[in-house]
Automatic annotation (TrEMBL):
This is Sortilin N-terminal domain-containing protein. Residues 123-259 form the Sortilin N-terminal domain. Transmembrane segments: none annotated. The keyword Phosphoprotein does not apply. Residues 1-17 form the signal peptide. Pfam families: Sortilin-Vps10 (PF15902). It comes from Neobacillus kokaensis. The keyword Repeat applies. It comes from the Bacteria. Gene3D superfamilies: YVTN repeat-like/Quinoprotein amine dehydrogenase.
Length: 323
C-alpha cells in the first residue's frame, strides 16, 4: 500500500464523527428481551461456537465483569479466560463504546427488528446489555467519538453540528447529560479532532489523539497542550497517570507509553503489524493494569495479561484468533 493510501486509512480512523440534535429525558429503562428479528428470543450471554465480525467500534474492561468487551457490528463480544461469548439478542452497533465501573456507556444504532429508536443517543448498561438506560439524545444523535469517566458522571462527545444542547466540537457534562458545556480547546492547533481518553480517576483530565500528536488537558479540554512530537496518533488510553498510545512513524506502527508527569516515553514490544493495519483501539483494565488489549484496522484483536511482554492473538481478521 502506498503512503497516500495509508494516510487515507489513518485519516478515516481519526476523523469519523457524527452529528447530533436535541436532548431527550433520561432515566428511562428499555427492556432488552424478546425484541429480536426472531420472536421471543431471551437475552443471554452464551459461548460463541463461531465468531466473525467485520467492524469493531470499541473495546474495554467493564468494572462489573471479568472479560474484554468488543463492540462490533454484530453486538457485544466478550473474551474471557480463552473463550469468546456473545449475546443471543440485542446485537446493536455500539459506537463510541466506553467501559466504566458499573458496566458500559455507548452510542450507536439498534439492531434491525428491535423496538429501540435509531439512533440510540447515549445509553448505559449495568447488566451486560440486557437493559439500557437512556442518558441523553435518545432517538436524536449518534456519537462515534465519545469518552466517559470510569467511575463518575462525566462524559465527553464530539458534535459535528451545533444544536440546542451542544456546540460544534468537543462538549462535556459532569451530571450524566443534564447540562453540557463546550470545551474551549485553547492551545489546540491540530487540523482535526480525534479519539478522546479520560483519566480513570480524574474526569477533568483528558487526552486526544490527532494527526499532529497527542493533546492533553487537565481542565475538561478548555486548555490543551501538545505533549508529543507532531506525529500521527491513531489510538490512546489512560493507564493511571500514563498514556498508552499507538502512533505511525516512518510507515511503522508503534506502541508506546507516555508518563504525563515526567514526559518520559517507553516503547512496547508487540506483534508485527503491516503499516496498512494500524491500531484502532486500546484498552487497559483499571482493576489490573497488567491486562492490556488492542484492535487493528483489519479487525485483529490482541490481549496481554503481563503488561505487554506476551501478546495473544484472540481475534484474527474478525475471526477467532490463535496464540
Amino acid at each position: 500500500m502506498k503512503k497516500s493510501a495509508l494516510l487515507s486509512i489513518l485519516t478515516i480512523i481519526l476523523l469519523i464523527a457524527a452529528g447530533c440534535t436535541n436532548n431527550t429525558k433520561k432515566e428511562s429503562k428499555i427492556s432488552n428481551e424478546n425484541k429480536e428479528n426472531n420472536a421471543n428470543v431471551p437475552y443471554e450471554i452464551k459461548e460463541a461456537k463461531s465468531l466473525k465480525v467485520s467492524r469493531i467500534f470499541g473495546i474495554g474492561y467493564p468494572g462489573n465483569d471479568h472479560g474484554l468487551y468488543i463492540a462490533s457490528n454484530k453486538g457485544l463480544k466478550i473474551y474471557q479466560e480463552g473463550k469468546w461469548y456473545e449475546s443471543t439478542s440485542n446485537r446493536h452497533q455500539y459506537m463510541g463504546f466506553q467501559a466504566i465501573e458499573e458496566g458500559f456507556i455507548a452510542s450507536g444504532k439498534p439492531q434491525n427488528g428491535t423496538d429501540f429508536k435509531n439512533p440510540l443517543g447515549i445509553v448505559k448498561s449495568q447488566d451486560k446489555g440486557k437493559s439500557l438506560e437512556k442518558i441523553a439524545f435518545y432517538g436524536k444523535a449518534n456519537f462515534h467519538f465519545m469518552a466517559a469517566a470510569y467511575n463518575g458522571p462525566a462524559l465527553y462527545v464530539i458534535s459535528e453540528e451545533p444544536s440546542e444542547k451542544l456546540s460544534l466540537g468537543v462538549n462535556y457534562t459532569k451530571d450524566f447529560g443534564e447540562s453540557w458545556k463546550k470545551s474551549e480547546l485553547k492551545g489546540f492547533n491540530a487540523d482535526s479532532l480525534g479519539m478522546i481518553a479520560v483519566h480513570p480517576r480524574n474526569a477533568d483530565s483528558l487526552a486526544m489523539a490527532t494527526r499532529s500528536g497527542i493533546y492533553y488537558s487537565n481542565d475538561n479540554g478548555n486548555t490543551m497542550k501538545l505533549v508529543t512530537e507532531p506525529l500521527m496518533v491513531t489510538a490512546l488510553t489512560f493507564m493511571d497517570d500514563t498514556l498508552l498510545f499507538s502512533s505511525v512513524e516512518n510507515e511503522k506502527i508503534m506502541l508506546k507509553s507516555l508518563n504525563l508527569k515526567t514526559g518520559k516515553q517507553a516503547a512496547y514490544n508487540f506483534p508485527f503489524l503491516d503499516y496498512d493495519n494500524p491500531i484502532t483501539y486500546l484498552a487497559v483494565n483499571p482493576k489490573n493494569n497488567k491486562q492490556l488489549a488492542f484492535t487493528t484496522y483489519k479487525n485483529d484483536v490482541y490481549e496481554s495479561t503481563d503488561s505487554g511482554n506476551k501478546w495473544v492473538n484472540v481475534l484474527q481478521e474478525g475471526k477467532k484468533g490463535r496464540d
